[in-house]
C-alpha cells in the first residue's frame, strides 16, 4: 500500500502545475530510485508504526510517544534539507484536571523560488488507538506484509502517506532533479484530537508560513477502494440536529407510572422514525428540492474502478442499500443522507432498568450536498418534526436544535491544480 | 403524614384476624395515647431522618450511618421489650474492590402465644440519596412541617412507616392492652440495594424466625394519593425485552458510509416505534386477548378517593393519557403497559458525534396483568418484531431476547387477612 501511495504522490508532485507531460527521463529515474530504495522506505515506516502515538487514552506514557513521533518526523524533514520550525503549542488540560504538553506542530519549507507555485502538504503522525476488540489479525504496532499489503496502525492514517510524500521529495533531491514547486510541510501530532491547537497556529501564521502557500494537499484522505487512491474535490457538509422531548426533568418508574403517561421515549422514537425510510430516503418534505441535478458527471462514476462485492466485503457488512457502483457512489458522494446517532437521557447501559426516562434528546444529522442550503434544511427539519409531534397530541414539550453545521464544498475540477 | 400512617396501622393491627368490631374502649384509649405522644413520635422520626443512611454513593462515612440507623431501630425495638437478634450479614464488595460491612438485619419478636396468629412487619431504614438536582424545597435531612405535612428523606420510604408501626405497638404496650397477635419485625438496612443479603437470611431462618409467621405486612408501599394510604393486594408483573440490531460489530462514520447502509439505528427506531401508539395502546397483536375482563371491580375504582388534578400536579407532568380517575387507575393497575427504556450501543453522551452505530440494543418492557401468560407475551412480541423487521428488507441481523420476567400477582381480597 505504501508503495502504491508513493507512486500516486509522485505523479501528483511531478505533474503539478505543469500543463505539458514532463520529460520521461527524470520521472523514470525517480521510479527507479523508488524501486531501489523501497526496503529502506518500508523500514522507516516500520519504525514509525512501532510508536504507539495515540492520544485517546491519556496515559502520560503515550503522550510521550506523540512527542517521539514529532521528533522522528522532524528528522526526516531535516534529512530533506528543509528549514524546519517545531512550533510549541502549549498545554492541554484533561477533564480530570491533569495538564499535558501538546506535541509540537512541524512547519517545514523547501525552496522559495518566487517564480514557482508553493504547495503545502498537510498530514499527521498521531493515530487512533488500536484496541484488542477491534480484532486485528496482526500486531497493530508491528508493520506486517500480508499478500503484498502492509498492515499496521497508521499505515494509511496517516504515517504512510506522510512518509510517502517525504520519500517522493527525497527521491527528487537525491537525483538532483529540480522540483517544479516550492514545497512546504505541515505535520500535526494531535489530528485525532480534532487538530488541537491547529486553528490558533493557522491564524498566527496567516501572514507568515501560510502567506506564500498557493494550495494545500491534504495527505489524509480516503482511497476509493483497496487498490485505488483518490483525488478528492469535494466533501458533503453536515447539519447536526438534536430533538429533545421532555415530560419532566426527573425519570419515572415504569411500575408506578407505566400506562398513563405520554412517555418521552415513545414520542422521540416516533419523531426519529419519521425521518428516513427503509431505503435510506429522507422523509423531510422538500429536502431533495435543491439537490443539484445529476449531469454528465454520471459518466465519471461509470469510469471509476470499484468492485461492489469487494467494497461490501471489505466494509464487513452483509448488504448495502444499492447494488450498482454508480448508485453506491452517488449516494455516498452527491446525495444527502440522514443518520440517527443515538439518544441522550435514556437508559444506555448494559443490563435491565425499568425506567421511564423523563427527558430524552435524539441526535441525528443530514449530510449536505450542493446546492442544499443549510438554513433551508434546518427550517424543513424543524417544520417536519413539529408536524409529526403535533399529530401525537402529546402533553410533552419538544425542542429541535441544531448542534453543528458544516457546508458542503466542491472544487472546480477544471482548475489547474486538479488538472495537474 | 406520620400521624395518618399511625392511625392506618393501628386499624390494621387492632382489627387483624378479628371478625367482629373491637370493643370501642381500648382503641379510643390508644388514639388518645397517640394524640398525647404525637410530639414525641415526631421527634424520634426527626432523629431518624437526620441520619443520611443512603448506600448509593459508597462513601464509607455514609455506610457508617447505615449501621447507626440499625442501632437506632434496635433501640426502639428493645424499648418495646422485644427479643431482638441483630443478624450480621457479612461484607459487600464494591466494583472498585473495596469491601464494606453490610448493616445487620434486625429480627424482633414480641409475644409467642401459640393460640394467636403471628404477623411479621417488614420495613427498612436505608434511604435513596437526596441530591441537590432533585430540587428539594426543604433540607432533606431536617424533618420539616409544611401545611401539616412532614417533609424529609425517608419520611414515607420507609423510616416513617417503620416508626409508626413500632409506635402503634408501643401504645398498646403502654396502655397494657393485650395485642390480638404475636408481632415480629424484620428491619433491613440495604433495601434500596435490592435487599442485599436478605434472600440468604430468609433461607437460613426458614425453619427458625419465619416458621411461625402467618402473614407478612410490608410497610414499604405506596399511598394512593397524598392523603390516602392503601392496602395493596396485587402488583403487575414485567416482561423485559431486548432487541438487538446488528449491521457489524464496529461503528461507522456517517461521512464515509452515510447513505448506503441499512443503518441499525433506523431499523431499531422502526421496531421500537411499532410497539405502542400515541394513546399508550400496545400494538403487539393479541396482547390484550387474555387480559382479565373488567368485572364489578369497576365500582371499587369509583369509590377510591383520588383527585386527578392533584395527582397530575404532584407527579409534575403537564398532561396524562386519561382524564378520569377510573381510567387512570385501571391503566396503572389492571391493564398492561409498555415502556421504552433506552438504547445500548448508540451515542448517548452530551455533545455531537457523527457515528453510525454498528450494533444497537433497544430495551423495553411490558407490565403484565392477570391472566396474561408471560410465555405467550414473549412469543407475541418476538413474532411481531420479526414481522416488522421482515417488512424492512434489511440486511442487518435482529435478535429479540427476554432479560427479565416477573409474574403479576393478585391476592384474594376476601381472605381473612384482607378482611381484617
TrEMBL record, chains A, B:
SUPFAM superfamilies: Zn-dependent exopeptidases (SSF53187). PANTHER family: BETA-ALA-HIS DIPEPTIDASE (PTHR43270:SF1). The keyword Hydrolase applies. The gene is CNDP1. Residues 1-18 form the signal peptide. It holds the Pfam family M20_dimer. Residues 234-388 form the Peptidase M20 dimerisation domain. The keyword Transmembrane helix does not apply. Keywords: Hydrolase, Metal-binding, Protease, Signal. It comes from Odocoileus virginianus (White-tailed deer). This is Beta-Ala-His dipeptidase isoform X2.
